[in-house]
Amino acid sequence: MTQTIPMTSSAIGGMGHSMKRKEDPRFLQGKGNYVEDVTLPGMLWMDIVRSPYAHAKIVSIDASKALAIPGVLAVITGKDLEAYNLHWMPTLMSDTQMVLPVDKVMYQAQEVAAVIATDRYIAADGAAVVDVEYEELPVVVDPFKALLPDAPVLRTDKPGKTDNHIFHWEVGDAAVTDKAFADADVVVKQDIYIPRIHVASIETCGCVASFEKTEGKLTVWMTTQAPHAIRTVFALVAGHVGLSEEKIRIISPDIGGGFGGKVPVYPGYVIAVAASVLIGKPVKWIEDRMENLQADSFARDYHTTAELAATKDGKLTALRFKTLADHGYADAAANPSKFPAGLYHICTGSYDLQAAHVEVDGAYTNKPPGGVAYRCSFRVTEAVHAIERMVDIMAHQIGMDPAALRMKNFIEKDQFPYKSVLGWEYDSGDYHAALQKAMDIIGYDDLRREQLEKRARGEFMGIGISSFTEIVGAGPSKDFDILGIKMFDSAEIRVHPTGKAIARFGTKSQGQGHETTYAQIVAQELGIPMAHVQVEEGDTDTAPYGLGTYASRSTPTSGAAAALAARKIREKARKIAAYLMEVAEEDLEWEPGKFTVKGNPEAFKTIQEIAFAAYTNHPQGMEAGLEATHYYDPPNLTYPFGSYICVVDIDAGTGQVHVRRFVAVDDCGNIINPMIVDGQIHGGLSMGLAPSLYEEISYDEAGNCLGGSFIDYLVPTAVETPNWETDKTITPSPHHPFGAKGVGESATVGAPPAIVNAVVDALWHLGVRHIDIPMTPSKVWKVLRDHGVTG
Amino acid sequence: MSMRTVNFTINGEAKSVQAESRQLLVHCIRETLGLTGTHVGCETSHCGACTIDLDGEPVKSCTMFAVQAEGKSLTTVEGLAVGGTLNPVQEGFWEEHGLQCGFCTPGMMITATALLRTVNEPTETEIREAISGNLCRCTGYVNIVKAIQYAQRKMHPTPAPEAVLQGGD
Questions:
Q1: Which of A730, A720, A588 is nearest to A666 (CA)?
Q2: What confidence tens digit (pLDDT) does each residue in A711-748 have?
Q3: Alpha-carbon distance A468 to A439, whole Å?
Q4: In CATH, what is the architecture of A24-31+489-632?
Q5: A186 by DSSP, 3-state: which?
Q6: CATH (residue range A299-474+636-786)
Q7: Distance from the B75 Cα atom to the nearest Cα atom in chain A, whole angstroms
Q8: What stretch of H or E contains A294?
Q9: pLDDT level of residue B162 (50, 70, 90 thresholds)
Q10: Residue A40, Cα to own-chain centre: how many angstroms?
Q11: How far apart are CA A738 and CA A16, in angstroms?
């Protein structure tokens, strides 16, 4: 299959054009429509009472003072929901979590009761005076301690559960790996912790739930990245109380950033739905920032002991990772169900490793549930961080340049498709070219010389590389499902009689620009100007079923579906054109926008003429109309990659890390809109910088959240963020209909190890081997102090 | 709760609204007046999604009471375009891809518009400092800085050398 995409005119605006975004005029003029902007007649407000304790028995809940406030209509507790068996719900990982507790709370800020009132201020007044009596229970915050034999068992709701262990999962050949380690010249070993972080999209989560009693129809405007899956979950969870899937409509309007945090079903959504059903009026719930940071699903929290083996001349021979995953009190990750640790076994990375063994265990602790992503495809960031750190440690250990060690061990261009030892089939890549390009742009050799000079003067300058391989576009139905629903995705295109089109998708943009890029795909395939292609997503009553937007899957799945639906339309258009021009179909040639009779360029029919004929003058025996739907089941995942180089200067007096330069060379296959791809990489790099230097959700021993507001959780501003330098190579995916791979998360995955590698590179000569993120000034300052640097 | 009558001008229109004395200005703007372009992202003055222009200064409307707007002149994102024509900042954000999800964008543009009204040729550092009270999670700020520089060139067309972005600290 050729993957060269012909360039259309800018009037058509197909793939490769940096078209301005179609969604922007409304955002620029304050006319976006986000969930909080939805107001319905008679709408009520919900506020949530939350637990101050991380683990406590609920002795009593007294709502009388709240109910005495004029305007407070109801206070809903776990006991109210228990009457309908709605007090627990399944997670996407087939674990369970509470909607509202009946007997005990499991993390600080857990939902305890909900106040429904006529006004947001009155609802808050009510929540402030709901009197809950607690009896504190022992708190488990450390996942290692959680697995000790004497640890209190947290999930007492699970019959027969005698420990806090959730799952054990392993992949690879342990015996072969052990032997490779035993035979190795050099082995490096490092404990690496990737802390809990939070996506902190600027829009928090919320919904407006409206149950219409007469029709029995539930409509929920909701901050969700996966509206169809949510509809099905609601039908499964609440089918027994009469919610039926054909009468559930989920509308995901404009979404103010998602990054994975808007995939799960949070208790607040379910309580608002229950309240609307019980009271018969629309109920709005919008969480505030502290609720968002303290209670919504987190990402990461992986404790890894990593080992890497090599020959003394730097040929990598084996990898062994052992990881403990802290999942909070419930496994509420959003991984494909076959993979409890997501796609973590991409951890052999960009290297031709022939032996690897990976083990992951999950543990319950008294923290909010989750394990969802932070702009990454199912634990790929954790995998890339570990392998890219270990490769750097190995390079330093054997005295080899980190770039040279990578070049020596990369999977070669002609090895693709490449079957990794842990079971993946990488579709395409040219890792040497990407790293070489990044080195050329940044002037690698000059930087190494400058570093030596500075080191001689006692200054700390470091250069860090990360050559990552992503794995996105989940996924092929033989391996990928969420709650049993296969991870296909969809597109439906209707061409109107005047040659304009509407296209609908099972995904949901949260800023990625789907209204523009999907229109460009349709424009590319049909020659209808992208300006004439209206894109809609997010309404389950109108869009075809799909699994939603996360894990960089929209272009690999729904984008592919758009191309294949358009090609179905093109085949019908060919028949109509042949009929109109009275020639055989095989005598027609397609170019974007028209069918021309071979050898006679004057004889052609445009797609607009054909569309009109499809409704006014179609061949007898052919169905009228010009539309198609495609459900795309990807044959494989796609494997974007890139090489990043970061240059840091470290202030010896304060420990502050200054990112002087950051060059990112990305390869996401063929590109739909270069401007948007660049924007995705800028954003991804910033969300790679953030946890590397600033962000962490940590807990004290009592389970108090220490990152629960924007005072403590430091989202970088424009002042901390460097000017990203981006470039690209293009290695099309051989199996995707137009050779694209997905790009939304590459930079978040690839950036952190480049930054850590740069910092450790600056300090290795002092004896520093590793620093866990976030590398805050105080942490780096302590490292410097402990290694004899007094600034 | 006591209700007060509050009079102010918003986007050039005189308004008289009833507000509870504790009502936040952003809720008055969004819910009483229905101008939902101004957003709420934190309620603690950190994120800047609620930034409006108050008598020529960008302020965070989530930490002001509605009654404090008495007699003031307010501009929200809905008041930036004049006669349906985008202002130079809005145009810059569109041209330079300075927005993705759009949630921080109204506050960001209000701040940028105020900056360019008071400083003719802000340096990149001045731009980054000016918008440091407005968080953006999507763009990485690079294109926001470019968008503001685009607007600056549009508003003050004196030829200036092409700027090369240096990044933040």
A1: A730
A2: 999 999 999 999 999 999 999 999 999 999 999 999 99
A3: 15
A4: 2-Layer Sandwich (3.30)
A5: strand
A6: 3.30.365.10
A7: 12
A8: helix A289-295
A9: low
A10: 31
A11: 12
* pLDDT(B128) > 70: yes
Chain A residues whose CB is inside 8 A of the B102 CB are 23-24, 26-28, 32, 254, 256, 511
Pair of tokens at residue A379 = 């634990």
ipTM: 0.97
Residue ranges of domains in chain A: 24-31+489-632, 35-137+205-286, 299-474+636-786
Counting the structural domains of chain B, the total is 2
pLDDT-based confidence at A4, cuts 50/70/90? confident
Query: Is B113 found in the same domain as B66?
Result: no
**How far apart are the C-alpha atoms of A344 and A379, rounded to whole Å?**
5
Residues B103 and B142 in one domain: yes
The sign of the dihedral angle between the CA atoms of A203, A204, A210, A211 is positive
Q: How confident is the model at residue A3 (pLDDT cuts 50, 70, 90)?
A: confident
First-to-final CA distance of chain B: 47
Beta strands at A657-667 and B51-54: parallel, antiparallel or unpaired: unpaired
Mean pLDDT of A386-400: 98
Across chain B, mean pLDDT equals 95
What's phi and psi for A8, nearest 5 deg? -85, 170
Give B129's contacts in chain A (Cβ within 8 Å).
718-719
Structure tokens at A24: 């922007």
Same domain, B74 and B19: yes
CATH class of A35-137+205-286: alpha beta
- Are B8 and B75 within one domain? yes
Beta bridge partners of A482: A485
The CATH number of residue B139's host domain is 1.10.150.120
Chain B CB within 8 Å of residue A674 CB: no
Give B 3-62 residues with CB within 8 A of chain A. 20, 22-23, 27, 30-31, 35-44, 46-47, 49
A225 has catalytic annotation: yes
pLDDT band at A791 (very low <50, low <70, confident <90, very high): low
Tens digits of residue pLDDT in A514-535: 999 999 999 999 999 999 999 9
Strand A725-728 to strand A657-667: parallel, antiparallel, or no bridges (unpaired)? Answer: parallel
Taking the alpha carbons at both ends of chain A, their separation in whole angstroms is 60
**DSSP-assigned letter for residue A652:** T
| Per-residue pLDDT at B163 | 61
Q: Which residues of A touch B141 (CB under 8 A)?
A: 682, 686, 717-718, 721
- Which tens digits make up the pLDDT trace of A754-764? 999 999 999 99
Whether residue B150 lies inside any domain: the answer is: yes
Q: How far apart are CA A413 and CA A60, in angstroms?
A: 65
Q: Which of B79, B106, B130 is the last residue of a domain?
A: B79
Structure confidence at residue B156 as a pLDDT band (50, 70, 90): confident
The domain in which residue B31 lies consists of 3-79
Residue A439: what are its φ and ψ, rounded to 5°? -65, -40
By Cβ distance, the residue of B90, B135, B138 closest to A683 is: B138
DSSP assignment of A45-67: EEEEEE-SSSSEEEEEEE-HHHH
Residue with tokens 């190579």: A729
Of A3, A118, A774, A729, nearest in space to A431 by CA? A729
Q: Predicted confidence band at A1 (pLDDT cuts at 50, 70, 90)? A: very low
Query: Is B113 within a domain?
Result: yes
Nearest to A718 among B93, B132, B138 (CB): B132
Question: Is the pLDDT score of B167 beyond 80?
Answer: no
On whether both B35 and B68 belong to a single domain, the answer is yes
Residue A716, min C-alpha distance to chain B (Å): 7
| A24-31+489-632 and A299-474+636-786 have identical folds | yes
With bands split at pLDDT 50, 70 and 90, how would you rate the model's confidence at B2?
confident
Instruction: With a cut of 60, say whether residue A2 has pLDDT above it.
Output: no
Q: What is the rounded CA–CA span in Å between residue A644 and residue A435? A: 8
